[in-house]
């Protein structure tokens, strides 16, 4: 498909309908998506507690790319492309480990942990070492979250994080640790994967566990974020009362949504959990050490989207973080990371199974749902279908996506 | 390959030679085959006894398409594309089962078994339910055989079935049941798979079991149908005598072949089995209840081809039905279905192993043969080879195929 | 990529740098490589001792091609494409075996072992048997080595083998037998696989076993052949002394490299092993019967490259032979064959494990190295890197390759 055909196709997309098939199955569009959407966003791919010591590293892999995230002797974390500047070999072969020096296993070129080249034996005249440092990847650490950006000209990080900053900071993620990580490889296009995450219309038929934790009216009106469903007077009243109460406790309240089109697709809000629930567990009872600035439980739930590729769903005593990675046209990697207070001890302060329960079972269900959705979308009979009142979040995401793509190819 | 190149290639094909490599390996030609050949034929994909009760269904899958074949409360069988009209999810996830209502597992849109939409929650203004029924697939039930047609403008079914009707009806398939089904996934282009089925030149070297059941002269002259090999005076005499005898019994006799080019590629004939054989089993002895209008065994064998994609090979007391499904350029699904009288009881009236034996072992051999044929046809050294006197059926199929393709791209 | 783009890309390649990414990952370039490089070379694919008796055969498979190498009743070895001239089926289905007649398993067309057709049943008028012999593949046996050439106009074999002849002949491979064969399927482009074999810059970091057998100064200067590294006065002195000594014994000495561009990429040289070593084993002690014209051990090592796709690394009492087969863009088959004197008995005259040891462990390491190299080369951040003083062999191979490709597409 050439750019002019694609521009026409973009123009043809109707409000409040799903996208045409091509957007979910075409390899050329996928390449454009990676280049123009994914590669321009700040995406968090881990938490600094995963690599606590000098030399600790892990790899972030996406398609043909592999990024080394490593902590140096001065406690600074770096991100480098895992490509030796000599003949191109991968340097780190294991998904995680510890290295005090990045030595390529092929010909032993070595690099300092900041990516600067240290040694290359027997080079020809005219070889300038300083020209051959590792390719850097943009990286920022914010509250322990490791953000990378694959763009050559990344957006300003402070501008990017500014509207969600206070919500994240209140939860003290910098003082957290990873309780568990889990991968849910999903055979579906990244947009079908995110469509699923941008609406809670499917929650009632598909996610009994989620519905046992969250209030029916919350799900209706706020299930995929503020203003993603029909407004509920009942829930608005609940929210109003809760806001008053929580403000008195000195806790953060309120919400953020993008009001005009820009490079970002961010959102944040704090809302009360279902009556009687303190967090997203089966019992709903307090389960671990309070995190961040919480002195007392406020029964609140903080939902933050920093980009389409990341979500933070945070209770007072633990947080579930999502990373969605487009791997290929029909494959998306979904990674979940559960964070608890760094001093909380498993078995003593918290039970991992209780913390994992809801989002683990829900993400397993979503994986199946997305895969069955993709199968149908591949049919020649698939045509865009009409969206419901509970799919406003999906519509918003779709609009943002189409505008970005349109601008990128103009 | 553009249409003009393909037209030239079609013109280049020589009578009594196999096709050029491209027809067996090219992805573009495969897409054209599906669109112009397979999708325009009435193809049976099952027997109504597979879904005897209200709500019983099975899926027919081909490539990216999945069709739900389901029986409703009024005993009518329907075929629908397995694609929810909302966001496109598959609705039925299991290959077979029972559903009283077609509820999409994603957002719970529901459809009646006739495909009409029943409910969709919380839709926006302007949503007209009646616009969102399931996509229907053309379907006809004939003698219990479930025929579908993927065309938007299917040929008239009565016209299509007319010449083979009496042969099929005599066997009483409407009063039959499935004794066994088996899949033989074959790594070969669908035309190599059908080439194999359209000649019995390979029977003698490759199929000892088949040759133990059928007369040598029958195999020579009729192995792949009437007039597919050199004529045999000996067999013509046998046939003449048998016809007289069988007519007296009031059984159907005769044969049908297409005499001029048309949309169809149908054939039918009744012939005698090898001396002393009553059916296609190892012993050749009567093995189950007589089917259809047979009052006594007539030692006859009814061979019907309704299209290149289906064959019915019928003895007096059981029938073996073939469905050939082009899945991708180098992959064909072959399904066999053995039918017996609906009142015949396994273990008492028939032994499944005896009934299955010949075509099971023969189809396993054919799978291997076709796969080794495909491997050689992929070689740069493959060039069309000369056909023998026993490959007239293959030549006929090839000619029909090339004409159809030529017309379709004109 | 069209030819004019490719010519520009070829022109852009810089001396003493690795190639651009496309040469290692592009499917079109791979097809050109097969057609213009691999298919024009004489490549040995086995040793005649693998098929000692009338009717013995083995298959040489590459991509979609399968070649039957078979010995006939007059003791002549033939190479035929494994494609029946009738409908194209593979004729030999097993990787090796014994056949007194090549009978196609499909329709029983049969061929003599020299490829001439023997019988085809029931053919139509006008069928001339002599037109339907098997497609021959060019074949030469030299010193027991079975060379094939996939070209329609192969180069003259005697011209091709002339400069390496004396080195190979001295080792008496015609009087040898296969002690062991092993395949090392490698997920990397064939040029990355050969790059690895054309330099010993990686030997010190990656191959401790190799470095225990060979002298440090030999590795530096000669590790990938004569003049592939910086010259070493110390090793030159060793070589000079050893040459004098060995000449006295009447053994072959000297070296060959291509001095001007031609169709071939051949090399040969004899050099001394590390002090105290008699061969490439862990102990370095004599291990089997002396081969060929050796009367006494001379501690020499003969390294011969007949083309980029074959290497012969020969000690006095055994030889390790390499065949590199480009299978697809990202896949190369590497086959090793260890030869010993035909009268040497395993367990008595030699211990297979000792003979295999060094190149088995080294090729397993190279497989891993090449695969990790390929992964990095697939990254968007891969750019050609600078070569060291020890990678002159790689540079020479690269230059030869680029010139050939450039000429082929001109």
Structural description of this entry:
Three copies of one chain form a homotrimer. The first copy, chain A, is of the alpha+beta class and 410 residues long. The first copy, chain A, has two domains: 43-149, Rieske Iron-sulfur Protein (3-layer Sandwich), CATH 2.102.10; 187-408, Naphthalene 1,2-dioxygenase Alpha Subunit, Chain A, domain 1 (Alpha-Beta Complex). In chain A, 29% of the residues lie in helices and 23% in strands. Chain A is built from twelve helices and 17 strands. The first copy, chain A, has helices spanning 3-12, 22-25, 27-36, 157-161, 165-170, 190-197, 203-206, 208-213, 216-222, 233-248, 352-377, 392-408, and strands at residues 43-47, 56-62, 65-71, 77-81, 96-98, 102-103, 110-111, 117-119, 138-142, 145-149, 176-183, 255-257, 267-272, 300-307, 310-314, 319-328, 331-341. In chain A, the strands form four sheets. In chain A, strands 11-17-16-15-14-13-12 form a seven-stranded antiparallel β-sheet. A four-stranded antiparallel β-sheet of chain A has the order 4-3-2-5, with no helix packed on it. In chain A, α6 (190-197) runs antiparallel to α12 (392-408). Chain A starts with a helix and ends with a helix. The model of chain A has no long low-confidence stretch (mean pLDDT 97). Chains in contact: A-B, A-C, B-C. The A-C interface holds A 64-66, 81-91, 93, 103, 105-108, 120-124, 127, 132, 135 and C 16, 18, 195, 201-202, 204-206, 230, 369, 372-373, 375-382, 385-390.
């Amino acid at each position: 498909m050439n750019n002019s055909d694609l521009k026409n196709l973009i123009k043809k997309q109707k409000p409040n309908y799903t996208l045409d098939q091509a957007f979910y199955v075409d390899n050329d569009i996928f390449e454009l998506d990676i280049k123009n959407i994914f590669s321009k966003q700040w995406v968090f791919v881990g938490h600094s507690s995963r690599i606590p010591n000098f030399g600790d590293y892990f790899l972030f892999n996406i398609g043909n790319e592999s990024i080394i995230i490593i902590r140096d002797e001065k406690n600074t974390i770096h991100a480098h492309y895992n490509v030796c500047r000599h003949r191109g070999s991968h340097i780190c072969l294991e998904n995680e480990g510890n290295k005090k020096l990045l030595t390529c296993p092929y010909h032993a070129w070595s690099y300092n942990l900041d990516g600067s080249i240290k040694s290359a034996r027997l080079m020809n005249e005219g070889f300038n070492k300083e020209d051959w440092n590792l390719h850097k990847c943009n990286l920022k650490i914010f509250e322990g979250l490791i953000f990378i950006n694959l763009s050559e000209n990344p957006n300003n990080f402070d501008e990017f994080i500014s509207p969600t900053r206070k919500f994240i900071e209140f939860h003290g993620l910098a003082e957290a640790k990873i309780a568990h990580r889990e991968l849910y490889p999903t055979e579906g296009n990244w947009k079908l994967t995110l469509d699923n995450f941008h609406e809670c219309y499917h929650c009632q038929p598909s996610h009994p566990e989620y519905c046992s934790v969250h209030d029916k009216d919350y799900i209706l009106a706020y299930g995929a974020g503020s203003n993603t469903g029909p407004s509920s007077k009942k829930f608005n009243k609940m929210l109003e009362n809760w806001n008053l109460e929580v403000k008195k406790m000195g806790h953060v309240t309120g919400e953020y949504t993008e009001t005009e089109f820009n490079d970002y697709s961010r959102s944040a809000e704090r809302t009360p959990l279902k009556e009687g629930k303190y967090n997203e567990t089966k019992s709903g009872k307090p389960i671990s050490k309070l995190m961040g600035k919480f002195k007392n439980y406020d029964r609140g739930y903080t939902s933050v989207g920093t980009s389409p590729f990341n979500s933070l769903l945070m209770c007072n005593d633990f947080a579930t973080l999502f990373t969605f990675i487009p791997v290929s046209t029909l494959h998306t990697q979904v990674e979940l990371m559960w964070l608890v207070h760094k001093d909380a001890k498993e078995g003593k302060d918290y039970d991992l199974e209780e913390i994992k329960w809801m989002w683990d079972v829900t993400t397993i269900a979503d994986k199946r749902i997305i895969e069955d959705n993709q199968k149908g979308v591949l049919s020649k009979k698939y045509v865009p279908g009409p969206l419901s009142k509970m799919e406003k979040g999906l519509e918003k995401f779709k609009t943002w996506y189409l505008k970005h793509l349109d601008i990128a190819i103009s």
